[in-house]
Each structure stands twice: as C-alpha cells, then as structure tokens.
Amino acid sequence: MSVDHYEVLGVAKDAGADDIKKAYRRLARELHPDVNGAQDAEERFKQVTHAYEVLSDPQSRENYDRGGDQGFGGFGPFGDIFENFFGGAAQQRGPRSRQERGQDALVRVDVDLADVIFGVNQSIDIDTAVVCETCEGSCAAPGTEARVCNICGGSGSLQRTVRSVLGNMVTQSPCGSCRGFGEVIESPCPTCAGQGRVRATRSLSVDIPGGIETGQRIHLPGQGEVGHGGGPAGDLYLEFTVRGDKVFSRLGDDIVATLELDMVDAIEGTEVTLEALDGPVTFAIKPGAQSADVVTVKSRGVTKLRGSGRGDLRFGLHVLTPTKLGAKESELISQLRALRKPAPPALAGAQAGMFQKFRDRLFGS
After folding, report:
1. CATH number of the domain within which 119 lies
2. Average pLDDT, stretch 34-62?
3. Which residue has the higher pLDDT, 91 or 278?
4. Is pTM beyond 0.70 here?
5. H or E element: which one contains 184?
6. CATH number where 44 lies
7. Can you tell me the distance from the alpha carbon of 352 to that of 365, in angstroms, rounded to the nearest whole number?
8. Which range marks the domain in which residue 232 is found?
9. pLDDT of residue 162
10. Crossing angle, helix 58-65 and helix 41-56, to 10 degrees?
11. Among 36, 205, 182, 197, which Cα is nearest to 123's?
12. Is pLDDT above 60 for 64?
C-alpha cells in the first residue's frame, strides 16, 4: 500500500473519530483548490478526502487496518463528505407527498368465557381517523384544488448559493410557502381543516377465534388510523380480556367448576345433569365420592387455539354434611354409626389435606 491514510491526515493509528474529523477539516480548508494555488493541491486534497472516507467509517477502517486495499471510493474531489462538512446537501427528489401512512391502533376488547369456547363473530366500535367524506382526502374544499406553489415552482424546495473562502456552496431547504409539498391549498376543506381525515366511530365485524386468552392479540392489517391527506391506513391490533364467570373458570383449554354434592348422593352415587356454558351436560358420580375428587367430562372445554379438538370440563366435588337433622334422620345416623363402628378422628399429613388434594387433582401437582 503506497499511501498511509493516517500519515496523509497526520494522525496516530489509534486516533479517535473526533481527532480524524478535525484533521480532515483543517487539511481540506488548507488544500482546497479555490484557496490553494499549488500545483499538487488538488491531488493532495483528493488524497486527504479519500483517507478521511476510509478512516471515518468503522468497518472500512477495520478493513484498512487489516491490510485491505482501499481504492478511491467513486466520488469526485468535491464529493458527499465535503458537502456534509461545509454546508452542501443532497438533492431533494421532488416535493414530498401530502399523503402519509396512518398510525397503528390498539383496541382492547372484552369477551365472555362462553364466547371463547367455540369463537364468536362480534361487532366492535372503533374510534379512529377515517377519510374525510367532504374532500375525499384531497384536503381542499369541494370545487377547489391545490395550485402549484409559485415560490418553488412545484419542486418543494429552495436552493441558496453561499459564497465562502472555499468557493460557492449550494444549500437546499424545504420551501416555507408550501412546506415542501410543491402545492398550496388556498381553500382548505372546512370539515377536516385541510387534514384529509376526521375522527369518527366505525363498526368492524371481527371473527374472534375459539381458545383466545386474556392478553392475546389479533392483527388486522390496514384497519388502523387513516393517514394525513387520506393516506393508507395503519394496522389495527385487538387485545382481548376474557371476562370471568360466576360459576366456571378457565384453566388452559379446560373449564373447571366446583360441584356441591349431598352426603347421601356421595355415598350411593348418582347421575347429575346440569347446564354448562355450551349446553346441558350429564355425568355419573360413583358411589363413595369424596370431597376433592374430580369428575372429568371429556371434550367439553375450550376449543384449542392451536391444534384441534377441545379441552375438558372438570368438576371438583365438595360433599355437603347436613347441619340440621330431624328425629328420624338422627336415629338412622346413630344406627349407621353402630353398624360401621368408625375409627376415631385422626390428623392427616399436610399433603393429604382436603384442600391440597383438591388443588392437586384439579390443577395438577
């Protein structure tokens, strides 16, 4: 490598970015052909500029330090880097569009537990920005239209030439008259005040899938806020909260509830028919049922959001002991005691307690 970029800029190999920038600015001013008449000034200026191009970019500098070949990067002696330092600006590619993409919107939706078993189609009211019906997004009052800006001629920008010791520098900035749009709306739409959109409440029909859970979201592209100037709408996100039920609760894809059972039915067993969230359900209680036992009805839970099939419907049993007995009932209980000769009450281990067993059987240990 015939040229040492660090030597060209006059900085050490461990120089920081600020030191490299300062060295380049100083040398560029000194060697600029407009202020330096030496025969080799232009060539040296090119070398300084190229050296800065290589060393100012971390990746390019790392490659150079490893011995990579760094040829001239394809810009002239008055290239982009020099313009960035001394007031030049890239040419603006025409006027900016009045239409802008709208923002995304987030709406929170409450659904009942019964609705998420199979899913439901629900109409949701959304307060959002919509296209102005008066001007249809043009931003101009009906019967009028935007005219070409007579200040910038429709380009949306103004150029200004500044003379300095380094020569004539051309700067470019957005036109203040049309704000860079290239057109001026002299009669803004009275409904939207020239915005091309208004706030309104609209109804949206949404298919809520079965198995949706609290906190989960549905993404609806193009259903969010309409942009300025009637621009394309952003996206809509629906975040769900599943309301609790007075009787049933949800555990994953299963639905759980507590079933109170009379002592006699627990002893002898019985058949139970009751109203579940998705209709009547019938199941059997085996003789000798205990509190904290769990009865499972297969495939009567929530439709699985991912996969196929449904969860289960599970009942935790709570055997009720009567608190008031008639004379005949007391007599029969006494006879039963005499026949069974039950063992005296005893303490059970903590893991064998009724509430612990109920929890383990219902929710899994």
Report:
1. 2.60.260.20
2. 80
3. 278
4. no
5. strand 183-184
6. 1.10.287.110
7. 12
8. 105-140+194-242
9. 61
10. 100
11. 205
12. yes
